[in-house]
Every structure is written in C-alpha cells, then in structure tokens.
Task: inverse folding
C-alpha cells in the first residue's frame, strides 16, 4: 500500500461518520452542562476583600484584647482598692510594659469546591495571640492567651 | 471554538455545539472499548463530566483528554466486568449498536466498515479510530494510549492496511 493509496483510503474513511449519540445519552449529557461561572476577576476581587478583612482582623483581635485587659485590670484594681480601704484612693494600675505576641501553632491547606465546580484552596492557620501587661511599680504581671483560627482563600492557578 | 469560552462563561448553546461536535466520536471509541451499549454510554458520560470538572477554567477539555479517560475507565470497567452477572449478557447482548451513521445510501458500506473494524485487533483499532474519527495527532494519540508516537504511527499504518483488506468491496 503506497502513501498515495493510504491517503485516498484515509479520505474515504473520514467520509464515514460516527453514529449520532442516542437521545437518552444526549439528555443525560445535557443535564451535566457545567454551570456558568462568574468572571474570574470578580472572584479574585472578592477573595482580596476577604483577605484584607482577615488581615485587619489579625491585628484588631490582639489589640482589642489588650485594651479590654487593661480596662479590666484598672477596674479590678479600682474595685479591690475600694473594698480594702474605702477611704483611701488606691493608686491606679500603670502598665509600663505591654507585650503582644503571635505564635503560629499549625498551618495546613484544604481544598473545597465552589457551587460552580471551581476548586478553591484555603490556607488554614491556628495562631496563639498572647498579651502580657506588667506594672513594675505594683509588681503586677497579667498574661492572656487566646487561640485564633485564620482561614484565607487563595488562588488555585493550576490543577 | 465559540467565542463564548473567552470570558470564562460557557453558555448552553456552546455546550450543545461542543457535544454535537464531539460526543459521537467519544461514543464510537467507547463502544469499541466495552461490550455493552449501556456501559459505553456510561463511559462517555463519566469521562466528559470528569474531564470538565478537572478544568481550572470553565473551558472545554481537550478531546484527547476525554479519549484517555474513556480508555482508563474502560480498563477499570473490564476488570470489574468479570464479576458482573450473566443477566447483563442476556439482556444487552444481541442488540449490537451501529458504530457508524447508517444513512440509506451508505448502509451497506458502513456495516462492512463496522465488521472490518470489529475484526481489527484492539491496539490497531484504537489508533485508527482516534486518528480518523477522533482527529487527534500522533502525539495526542500517544498520550491518550500511553504509547510512543512512533508506535502509534506504525500501528496506524498497519491498521489501515488491514482495514483495507477487509473492506475492498465497499471501497476502491
């Protein structure tokens, strides 16, 4: 069989068309049509917003904890002062050192799917926020540790 | 392909068009991989859905990817098939589906072609089907069947020669 004969035969074969898909299969395939997705840019923008919010939260949480702790310490000091010696005004707590520390406990990635079927990767991190307040004049040292879970959706470029 | 894919959307019309263009080729290949029509249809549906879900963007997967998935699924299927009950054999066998479009004029030629194709050893038939009706390149066939491209090319030539011997009445 020469190359020319091969080409002719190939052309003839191509004229024979595969049988059409039966209606039942056609109907099944039509049901499987992938859902329309929003443009990728919109998704990315929303992810950036979420990410920014979580980043802000990362700083707000220990800061608000520190403020609350300071207020609580001051209030308690005030209350105990009143109880112990009602006539004498107790000196207010003067925190001369506040330390805020964040410690990464664990980090792992998880993959989930959007309703449209698109895979999204989430970075899950567990942090331990630690706030330490000390008043050296009164010999006070107060420490508060709060665990925090941070989940940030990140891009899933390749699959 | 339609421009509907460009912005990440895939409209119903695009899907219908894509199916109309490709589904008959997938089904032809699937019918050659398994014994029963129902299994072939399941293979096509599973492969299409699986490959679409694997796509990061909402764009259609390459045909070669779907052929490869059909083949892999068919291999898994044939492993399980030994355990399948005889009921399927009695229920589904004896209803051979036509592999090719049997218009009134070409009915005889097409049934001759189906007979010749079914006589061809599977390794040659796969390559001929993917090249002629799947419109894949030898590189794509090599990837789908997990064989070297040169092997695909030589199997194709041998397959065509064998096919021609069996179809001399219908073709020149």
Result:
């Amino acid at each position: 069989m020469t190359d020319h004969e091969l080409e002719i035969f190939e052309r003839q074969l191509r004229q024979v068309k595969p049988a059409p898909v039966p209606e039942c299969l056609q109907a099944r395939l039509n049901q499987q049509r992938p859902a329309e997705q929003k443009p990728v840019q919109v998704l990315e923008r929303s992810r950036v917003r979420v990410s920014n919010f979580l980043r802000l939260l990362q700083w707000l949480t220990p800061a608000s904890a520190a403020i609350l702790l300071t207020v609580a310490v001051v209030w308690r000091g005030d209350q105990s002062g009143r109880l112990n010696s009602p006539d004498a005004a107790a000196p207010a707590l003067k925190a001369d050192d506040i330390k805020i520390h964040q410690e990464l406990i664990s980090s792992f990635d998880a993959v989930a799917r959007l309703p449209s079927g698109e895979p999204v990767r989430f970075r899950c991190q567990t942090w331990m926020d630690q706030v330490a307040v000390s008043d050296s004049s009164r010999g006070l040292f107060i420490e508060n540790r709060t665990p925090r879970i941070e989940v940030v959706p990140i891009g899933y470029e390749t699959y | 392909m339609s421009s509907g894919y460009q912005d990440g959307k895939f409209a119903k019309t695009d899907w219908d068009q894509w199916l109309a263009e490709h589904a008959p080729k997938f089904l032809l290949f699937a019918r050659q991989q398994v014994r029963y029509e129902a299994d072939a249809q399941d293979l096509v549906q599973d492969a299409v859905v699986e490959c679409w879900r694997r796509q990061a963007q909402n764009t259609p997967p390459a045909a070669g990817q779907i052929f490869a998935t059909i083949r892999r699924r068919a291999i898994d299927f044939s492993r399980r098939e030994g355990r399948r009950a005889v009921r399927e054999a009695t229920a589904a066998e004896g209803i051979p589906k036509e592999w090719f479009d049997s218009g009134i004029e070409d009915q005889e030629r097409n049934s001759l072609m189906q007979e010749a194709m079914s006589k061809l050893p599977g390794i040659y038939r796969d390559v001929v089907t993917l090249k002629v009706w799947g419109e894949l390149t030898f590189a794509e066939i090599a990837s789908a069947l997990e064989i070297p491209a040169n092997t695909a090319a030589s199997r194709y030539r041998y397959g065509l020669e064998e096919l021609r011997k069996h179809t001399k009445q219908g073709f020149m």
User: Anything to note?
Assistant: DSSP finds three helices and three strands in chain A. The longest helix of chain A spans residues 40-84. Residues 37-45 of chain A have pLDDT under 50 and may be disordered.
